[in-house]
Amino acid sequence: MNPLPIRMVVAAALIDRDGRVLLAERPAGKHLAGTWEFPGGKVETGETPEAALIRELREELGIETEASCLAPATFASHAYEHFHLVLMLYVCRKWQGTPHGHDGQRLRWERVNDLFSIDMPPADRPLIGTLAALI
Ligand SMILES: Nc1nc2c([nH]c(=O)n2[C@@H]2O[C@H](COP(=O)(O)OP(=O)(O)OP(=O)(O)O)[C@@H](O)[C@H]2O)c(=O)[nH]1
């Protein structure tokens, strides 16, 4: 039996009109602080992944989207020291509003091929190749 608690997380690769992807910096004091992640967060009990992602994008970035704009892209299954992460990554090209880091986190738009050289969480690295092939 796997001894680690499972953490279900949803995240979005938001793609702008120039084909760039939005990354958010993980805040100081948090797990993997300073790395650049796809915006998202934990799925709460009883919540669908899509509802969780819509909620997280609203809370974190102040943007609105809907389930029909979230295309499942790929996922990661990664053992961190204290939990096992299942990270579901969606591609989203359509939303309302301009993303702002609502908790003060820095944001950056990057070309997908440049993600390989950015300090992202270890679980994310295997996702980049698949994402690059999709967009
Ligand atoms: N949103 C997001 N989280 C990721 C990515 N990659 C990755 O390993 N994670 C991990 O997935 C977890 C996301 O949970 P979270 O954002 O809700 O939780 P948190 O650590 O910020 O803190 P919290 O427990 O205070 O809410 C974190 O442990 C984070 O390190 C990613 O690309 N996006």
Automatic annotation (TrEMBL):
Pfam families: NUDIX_4 (PF14815). PROSITE patterns: NUDIX, NUDIX_BOX. GO terms for molecular function: 8-oxo-7,8-dihydrodeoxyguanosine triphosphate pyrophosphatase activity; 8-oxo-7,8-dihydroguanosine triphosphate pyrophosphatase activity; 8-oxo-dGDP phosphatase activity; 8-oxo-GDP phosphatase activity; metal ion binding. It catalyses: 8-oxo-GTP + H2O = 8-oxo-GMP + diphosphate + H(+); 8-oxo-dGTP + H2O = 8-oxo-dGMP + diphosphate + H(+). Mg(2+) binds at residues 40, 60. It comes from the Bacteria. Its cofactor is Mg(2+). Gene3D superfamilies: Nucleoside Triphosphate Pyrophosphohydrolase. This is 8-oxo-dGTP diphosphatase.
